[in-house]
Design brief:
This protein is mainly alpha-helical. Helix content is 88%, strand content 0%.
């Protein structure tokens, strides 16, 4: 919990990175 409080930007970056990864997989799966 202290880590999140000290470095919140890392958690946010990780969150968006995961979202982008899922989106990329979606595009590949459906060949859009």
């Amino acid at each position: 919990m202290e880590q999140s409080f000290l470095r919140p930007h890392q958690s946010q970056l990780h969150f968006w990175h995961g979202r982008f990864t899922l989106f990329a997989i979606f595009l590949v799966e459906y060949e859009i």
